[in-house]
Amino acid sequence: MTSNQSNGSRAYLFSIVLVAVIGGLLFGYDTAVVSGAEQALDTFFRTASDFTYTAWMHGFTASSALIGCVIGGAISGVLAARFGRKRTLVVAAVLFFVSAVGSWCPESGILPYGEASFALLVSFNLYRIIGGIGVGLASAVCPMYIAEISPARIRGTLVSCNQFAIIFGMLVVYFVNYLIRNNLGDTVEVIEQAMVDIGWRRMFLSEAFPAGAFFLLILLVPETPRFLALRGNDTRAFAVLERINGTAEARTILDEIKSTVHEKRERLFAYGATVIVVGILLSFFQQAIGINVVLYYAPRIFENMGATGDASMLQTVVMGIVNIVFTVVAIFTVDRVGRKPLLIIGSTGMMVGMAVLAALSFTDTIGLAALVFIIIYTASFMMSWGPICWVLISEIFPNTIRSQAVAIAVAAQWVSNFLVSATFPSLSEWSVGGTYCIYAAMSLLSALFVWKMVPETKGKTLEQMSALWRSRR
Q1: Rounded CA gap, 285 and 343, in Å?
Q2: What pTM was estimated for this model as a whole?
Q3: What does the alpha-carbon distance between residue 55 and residue 471 come to, in Å, rounded to a whole number?
């Protein structure tokens, strides 16, 4: 028996997780790429002669990918349960690639190139929705895949790496957008016109490169042992578990998994409604606090604070770096401090950040103070609700209902995301300060929800979730 078989291979585990989190990187890349392109898209579609491009239409266009995210999240459970976690991620990679190329050239060789029209708007949004379906699949299945392949003692850390990848993907696309913009010309006027002509197209096309890499690499990783065991393939499940955990621990884990296999035909609410409600509310509050308004509309928000042109894009990059730093804080504390304390601390920081931003908005105070409290708000989210929500969604559900329950929770998250993002332009026209007050109130409610309803899952195996929820029925 080799030492690898006796002790497991940490390098093998990390290499699998590294591939899986590329799906998270694409999740972040796809959802944030629009932040650099949305103002050019606004200008471009306002040149259409066959329809009037309204603020509501722009809000829809900037967030149309979220419709696909809802669809992808909703069908993720069916695909993951029927075809496996790995194959579902392969599908997501293909959708990312198709969306990137299609958003780059929504004319598709049929419509007149570069001529804004209602048909082109529909085509562009369809390609963004296709990418959104990929995001929805990846958002549900990447953390599920990592959770099902990771040892319990470091599961929170490894699943949090997926959130790190999401934020890193956002930072990468902020930087890519900045570079694309800066290489379009020498003067502001030339750059702005080039953004309308070709800049936004290049921003969307840039996603095709990581999408292609993800497709090739995901073919090399194994299916999760829990899916294999639930499908009766104990030999392959044991082989994966043994290579990751070592022989003795692999036998123990496989026995625990098999002890729940007989329950696989139980209905969704076999463990009570509370676990499903908690999953849905975790998803709802992660979006209702307004984080994606900051992420999607970052350059526009910074311009409203007084920054212009390249400065607003550069501040977005700085914010992305801050997000990375505080996501790392979550990665190193989630399996030490626990899930609940981090969520409550994060909710408190977000409430303070949004409340002060609201006050600054009401008093027409812009500049450094606003930037500081935006950073406090986003840093609080990144060290708590950003990664921890995904950790909990991937681990709180019992094995036998995980695919369906995760799908419901993720679909609820993307519905909430779409509603918050699509309504921001209209709400900000009503009152920017009032909008921030709404997000501050949601941050407070999220802390109360975690305190009263969310169980602590630190150190528990996925199989122990069955007993936990049965005891709460």
Answers
A1: 11
A2: 0.77
A3: 50
